[in-house]
């Protein structure tokens, strides 16, 4: 969280280890952030927190249970940036003021680093799925159908952990906004990953997928495009609507979920896995949005525009049916039992990764909603004897968010600072001597409000 | 119609389907639900020990050597996610089902001691080959 020189190191690191290459990428001036908590309307700049990234060991891929580890967050921020650099992003206000950033974002220097790192970074971030998910035995179309019905029924039976956390929060409005921000990750660039699976020639199943795609894109009518109606929902909450305004508040689980569909779509060897994953997603969306409408109406009444949710609650019932009958089972029928394990794997992986979204969002809501108790817990937390990390901040320091693999106690040594854990909720003001417990995996940023603020970070030692 | 059975592999390692028993075999880094049935005379392969090369199971009843690869081919369709296993019983399997935990020796390394401390695998290999495709060894007398 200290300012670095503005010189780019990207061009020095086209070789080297994955860690060296991604650190060079993150060290580029586009990704060093600024003092603002929210990002300006500039889709090319996003804070990759290069100082914190430098702590990440890119030789040690996270296991499936470590989806909220700091290196997992760092990897998914990078991956999301890599994937989006393969889509067309233009600012709503026009490019005139941002043409230099456009040139840098899509330019040869960063492209070289991306292309030299992408496959390896995907293995780092998603290799854990190979260990966590396995499909064995002589699977058939009937087995695929039975498994699919089982997992969809299971998803529909229980409440969404994230929506439950919102409903139970003391500050339900901030909790709901935090959830919206996680949806914005995809909501403002919706169906971009899907678009990669439209080219080629694969028969009626291709046309079935295209029907869904044109719904997402509002049949060519901009006002009906899902991204447009998502922005309307944000606007009704007085939230920013430009792409990645809330970049600093995307959690590792939702980032991984969004990246997962790009990951499958980039490599057509994984096409059948994609078909399984997208079918699962479409099947659970409709009931999830019905539940979301109930929770949001209960909190905001008619003050929130839920057209986006109503649209999904309706159209995803069709998409769920179309993907199941005309994509998933149709592919199994047409291409035979050999593709069934991959279709099953896609369903299972999407279910697992979707669980990361829910668990991470619920955990962040619960923690951010209860910071006063975490002040009390900080006093009782046993901390390591190792020298604490020390951070010196000024109000002009670049603002970035991060998490830790271990629980930490943040203590203010000097000055005053705000701990910020939600995009729209009140910041937690900390003054000299104050301390707050940050559980492992929770996302936060610290912003100095005095001319200088010095923070210490103590690692909490596990209690026996 | 395919039946769906959910197992928590941190608690259970065996499924009973009517009179047939299946157990979790660990092989080649995977966990598979295989039939607990020696092709020679139906002995419990879950209680078999691995041969020193780890490639075969030595049935506790007659010492028949059964290739691990052949046992793997008896596995039921299953989708594993972490420790949750969703078993997909093929159509026609309408017998009562239960999931249990029982001792499984077939996953121990070849040189691991038995629970009673008596040591390694049964290595008696006298007699003629059975000719069964799933067996590579011989029954004990």
Could you describe the 3D structure shown?
The complex is a heterodimer of chains A (464) and B (141). Chain A folds into 3 domains: 10-125, no CATH class; 135-369, Heme oxygenase-like (Heme Oxygenase, Chain A), CATH 1.20.910; 372-459, Sandwich (Jelly Rolls), CATH 2.60.120.10. In chain A, helix 8 (161-168) runs antiparallel to helix 9, helix 14 (271-300) packs antiparallel against helix 15 and helix 14 (271-300) packs parallel to helix 16. In chain A, strand 4 (416-420) and strand 5 (428-431) form a beta hairpin. Residues 1-7 of chain A have low confidence and may be disordered. With 464 residues, chain A is of the alpha+beta class. In chain A, the strands form 2 sheets. Chain A has a 4-stranded antiparallel β-sheet. Chain A has 17 helices and 8 strands. With 141 residues, chain B is mainly β. Chain B is globular and about 40 Å long. The longest helix of chain B is centred in the middle third of the chain and has 5 residues, at 68-72. Chain B has a domain at 3-100: 3-layer Sandwich (Rieske Iron-sulfur Protein). Helices cover 4% and strands 33% of the residues of chain B. Chain B has a 4-stranded antiparallel β-sheet. Chain B has a 3-stranded antiparallel β-sheet with strand order 1-9-8, with no helix packed on it. A 3-stranded antiparallel β-sheet of chain B has the order 5-6-7. Residues 118-141 of chain B have low confidence and may be disordered. Classes of the chains: A alpha+beta (464), B mainly beta (141). The interface between A and B is medium-sized, with 24 and 21 residues.
The CATH homology group name of the largest domain in chain A: Heme oxygenase-like
Q: Supply the number of helical segments of chain B.
A: 1
CATH class of one domain in chain B: Mainly Beta
**Between the first and last Cα atoms of chain B, what is the distance in angstroms?**
43 Å
Q: What structural class is derived from the secondary structure elements of chain A?
A: alpha+beta
The backbone outline of chain A, from C-alpha atoms, is globular
Strand order of the largest sheet of chain A: 2-8-3-6
- Major sheet of chain A: 4 strands, antiparallel
The average pLDDT value of chain B, as a whole number, equals 83
Cα radius of gyration of chain A in angstroms:
22 Å
State the helicity of chain B in percent bands.
under 10%
- Between the first and last Cα atoms of chain A, what is the distance in angstroms? 33 Å
Helix content of chain A: 40-55%
Poorly predicted regions of chain A: 1-7
Order of helices and strands of chain B: EEEEEEEHEEE
Q: For this structure, what is the CATH class of the largest domain in chain A?
A: Mainly Alpha
Count of the separate structural domains of chain A: 3
Describe the oligomeric state of these chains in a short phrase.
Answer: heterodimer
